[in-house]
Write a structure and sequence with these properties.
Elements (H helix, E strand, L loop, with lengths): L1 E5 L4 E2 L7 H26 L3 E5 L14 H8 L6 H13 L2 E8 L9 E7 L5 E6 L13 H8 L8 E3 L2 E7 L6 H9 L4 E5 L10 H12 L3 E5 L4 E2 L13 E3 L5 E4 L9 E4 L1 H8 L14 H9 L16 H17 L2
Parallel strand pairs: 1-3, 2-11, 3-4, 8-9, 9-10
Antiparallel strand pairs: 1-14, 4-5, 5-6, 7-8, 10-12, 12-13
Helix pairs in contact: 1-3
């Protein structure tokens, strides 16, 4: 048993930066601030805090008016660059498992970037990279599907990593609304979902908060979900994405939940022995062991909605994504709706 912390942080955006040097300098300042916050949080929560998850795009914010090329050049991290080096050094000093979400360059796709959730181990090494598969305005592996599979293979699409704190996997942002993502990770043994998000904070039960309970329940997994504690540096109202970071257990019970603003309140025990005992018990509630995937495989194989490979040509502007979705809707109106 150990403690996990979904650390609710303010996101300092880089949209107003005029150069990569300026944006990286701001990111490095954010890392220094975050290290101090994690260290202080561990002192409060307890030294048995082994896992810390931080929000989506916690170092940069998200593109607003920037083109794909502009955002890649300004905010997408180099895999071996100094920002990752600074994160690695931070994690080694803190001796934790650390998960976050960034925009990242890829040498196989130099004209694009991907939104990447990652896990670092206490030695500072990146143990896992998960590239977001469903996005509205951000390039995804599915948009260059043929080339991505050639470069990385299918196993890299749904990565999990076995560690001494359980088998971990990442879910990015709104992908909590896509049950297939969590299911494919659970198929590969995931026990703890690490969910970096930046979403609407509301006292109402939002779609994503419903989905968090569902994903944990249906996959008999813990879910550690870290939301932003507001954003700084853009004209969007600062507290639009704020609050509700939480830890959910394998029965869908919320163990801890933060209010609004920067917070360490979303911390709780992760009991792997209890989770594994439930997974190994024949019972009506063992939903994972009762899955009959053959029932659904043919339906998935026979139907295609959003098309793959739409970014194999030159980089496009944001209108491309809207036009592509509209063509899907037009098709579905004839065939499904």
């Amino acid at each position: 048993m150990y403690k996990a912390l979904a650390l609710q942080l303010n996101c300092q955006t880089v949209n107003a930066c005029n150069s990569r040097e300026e944006s990286e300098r701001l990111m490095l300042q954010s890392i220094n601030r975050i290290e101090s916050q994690i260290s202080a949080s561990i002192n409060v929560v307890g030294r048995d805090t082994m896992l810390v998850v931080v929000p989506e795009h916690f170092l940069s914010g998200f593109p607003i008016n920037e083109t794909i090329v502009e955002w890649r050049d300004k905010a997408a991290l180099e895999i071996d660059g100094r920002v990752y080096e600074a994160l690695s050094a931070m994690v080694q000093r803190l001796q934790i498992y650390f998960s976050g979400n960034v925009y990242e360059q890829d040498p196989h796709f130099p004209d694009l970037y991907f939104q990447t959730s990652f896990i670092m181990g206490p030695n500072g090494n990146v143990l896992l990279r998960y590239r977001r598969l469903n996005a509205m305005y951000t390039p995804t592996p599915h948009d260059v599907w043929a080339y991505y599979l050639e470069a990385y293979g299918y196993d890299a699409v749904f990565p999990v990593v076995k560690t001494n704190i359980g088998t971990l996997a990442c879910i990015a942002s709104e992908e909590i609304l896509y049950p297939e993502v969590a299911r494919c990770l659970a198929m590969r043994g995931a026990e703890v979902f690490l969910h970096s998000t930046s979403e609407i904070g509301s006292p109402m039960l939002t779609q994503k908060n419903i989905a968090k309970l569902a994903r944990a329940t249906e996959n008999l997994s813990y879910l550690v979900s870290a939301n932003s504690g507001g954003v700084s540096g853009v004209s969007i109202p600062a507290n639009s994405t704020d609050g509700g970071s939480k830890i959910v257990d394998y029965s869908g019970l919320v163990l801890a939940e933060a209010g609004y603003g920067e917070s360490l309140v979303a911390n709780a025990d992760i009991d792997l022995n209890a989770l594994r005992a439930v997974r190994q018990r024949p019972a009506v509630g063992n939903l994972l062991a009762r899955q009959r995937f053959e029932l659904y495989a043919e339906s998935y194989a026979k139907h295609s909605f959003y098309p793959p490979n739409t970014l194999l040509a030159e980089p496009v502007d944001r209108t491309h994504f809207v036009k592509t979705q509209q063509s899907v809707i037009d098709k579905l109106k004839k065939e499904v709706f």
